């Protein structure tokens, strides 16, 4: 599909506006359009916004870049759309079951929480939760920690970083390179120390990149990779072993709205990780899904439970999406939450993944050289605490007396 011919006047007008419009059809599926938005936003450092419509992709960026490289970028946008079309071709979600029925509308809790001081922003995608809302996060985690104890999970405590080479072994760097938040130490040299001191004295901390070493660690994007890192190059635990941990996870999300509590740069997850015979891993995954179904019904939260795939990035996505979906390796529980003010008011309700049930097969055992029997596998269940809290607050309000009894302070 080619872009229509544009006159010199049209090109000049587009460049002056700093807007590149590429007329290309994009399938109206949320996951497809999100993939296109994220990948197009990485085509040039000056990209400010990306809008994906039914018949065009609009990219706002530096006018000079549009003038000099507009045709090249337009071709790159078409390439992104075509790759997304191909990689999602076999990745068709299937709804397995539904829980409850959402009300016609849900109330966005963000304005009231900000007014009461329960939410304090630190920039897009980073929030402090305080007061009753902070307590709700704690109560949600207590519920899932209790579930983990009931199945005999061993509690583990991890560091906040994971080694860069461990993420490579896990396949995460290849699949999600845009999400990595690297950790760099200051070089042990007088000029580096002086540069950091100057950056501190300036009051903004800028201009110190040259003083940093190459990173060897990353702020952990998940909980479970740190467990596999701890077990790497050794024997697998005997039988079916289950572990649990809670931690703050970090991802440089590219599609973050300043008023959205569902897509965050820093968020908390409780995970339950299990490894052992493949049949028992699959049984554990579905037992925990059944347990969550009962919990959500008790909390009167509407949900859809569907097969899903991870938001693989770039060329690494081409074969992975379809395989993961066809094998049903990922199941997501999506909760009803309100739209984000100023972005998607056309939809009275949106569905966000608040829990996922993952079967790794042997990918992480083999990636981390964990010696295990031929029939062994691993899996994990992830509970996103901020998204669960958003669903509770949207459905039951911000006052604790309206919350389900086991979530009240």
CATH superfamily of the largest domain: Bira Bifunctional Protein, Domain 2
Distance between the termini: 57 Å
Radius of gyration: 23 Å
| CATH C-level label of the largest domain | Alpha Beta
Put simply, the count of helices is 13
State the strand order across the main sheet: 4-13-14-15-16-12-11-7
What's the story with the biggest beta sheet?
8 strands, mixed
What's the CATH architecture name of the largest domain? 2-Layer Sandwich
Write down how many β-strands occur, each being a DSSP E stretch of 2 or more residues.
16
CATH topology description of the largest domain: BirA Bifunctional Protein, domain 2
Spans where pLDDT lies below 50 across 5 or more residues? 1-13
Number of individual domains? 2
Bulk shape: globular
Name the beta content range: 15-25%
Order of helices and strands: HEHEEHEHEEHEEHHEHEHEEHEHEEHEH
Tell me what the structure shows.
The protein starts with 7 loop residues before the first helix and ends in a 13-residue tail after the last helix. Strand 2 and strand 3 (56-60) form a beta hairpin. It has 409 residues and is α+β, with helices and mostly antiparallel strands. It is built from 13 helices and 16 strands. The chain is globular. It folds into two domains: 8-87, Alpha-Beta Plaits (2-Layer Sandwich); 95-161 and 221-407, Bira Bifunctional Protein, Domain 2 (BirA Bifunctional Protein, domain 2, 2-Layer Sandwich), CATH 3.30.930.10.
């Amino acid at each position: 599909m080619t872009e229509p011919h544009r006159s010199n006047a049209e090109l000049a007008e587009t460049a002056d506006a700093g807007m590149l419009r590429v007329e290309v059809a994009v399938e109206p599926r949320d996951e497809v359009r999100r993939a296109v938005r994220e990948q197009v936003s990485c085509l040039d450092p000056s990209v400010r916004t990306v809008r994906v419509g039914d018949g065009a992709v609009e990219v706002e960026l530096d006018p000079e870049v549009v003038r000099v490289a507009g045709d090249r970028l337009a071709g790159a946008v078409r390439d992104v759309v075509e790759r997304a079309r191909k990689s999602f071709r076999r990745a068709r979600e299937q709804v397995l079951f539904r829980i409850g029925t959402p009300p016609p509308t849900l109330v966005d809790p963000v304005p009231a929480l900000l007014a009461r001081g329960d939410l304090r922003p630190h920039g897009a995608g980073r929030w402090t939760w305080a007061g009753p809302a902070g307590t709700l996060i704690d109560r949600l985690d207590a519920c899932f920690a209790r579930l983990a104890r009931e199945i005999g999970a061993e509690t583990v405590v991890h560091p906040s970083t994971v080694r860069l080479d461990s993420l490579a072994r896990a396949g995460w760097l290849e699949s999600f390179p845009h999400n990595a938040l690297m950790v760099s130490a200051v070089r042990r040299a007088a000029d580096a120390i002086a540069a950091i001191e100057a950056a501190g004295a300036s009051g903004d901390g800028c201009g110190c990149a040259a003083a940093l070493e190459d990173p060897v660690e990353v702020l952990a994007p998940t909980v479970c990779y740190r467990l596999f890192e701890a077990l790497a190059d050794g024997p697998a635990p005997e039988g079916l072993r289950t572990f649990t941990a809670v931690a703050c996870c970090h991802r440089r999300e590219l599609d973050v709205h300043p008023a959205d509590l569902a897509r965050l740069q820093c968020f908390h997850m409780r995970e339950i990780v299990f490894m052992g015979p493949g049949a028992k891993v699959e049984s554990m995954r579905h037992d925990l899904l059944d347990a969550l179904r009962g919990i959500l019904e008790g909390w009167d939260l509407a949900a859809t439970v569907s097969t899903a795939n991870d938001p693989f990035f770039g060329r690494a996505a081409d074969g992975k999406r379809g395989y993961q979906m066809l094998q049903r390796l990922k199941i997501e529980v999506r909760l009803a939450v309100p739209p984000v003010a100023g972005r998607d008011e056309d939809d009275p309700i949106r569905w966000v993944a608040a829990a996922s049930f993952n079967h790794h097969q042997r990918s992480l055992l083999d990636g981390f050289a964990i010696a295990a029997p031929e029939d062994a596998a691993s899996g994990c269940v992830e509970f996103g605490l901020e998204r669960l809290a958003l669903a509770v607050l949207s459905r039951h309000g911000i006052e604790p007396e309206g919350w389900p009894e086991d979530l009240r302070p």
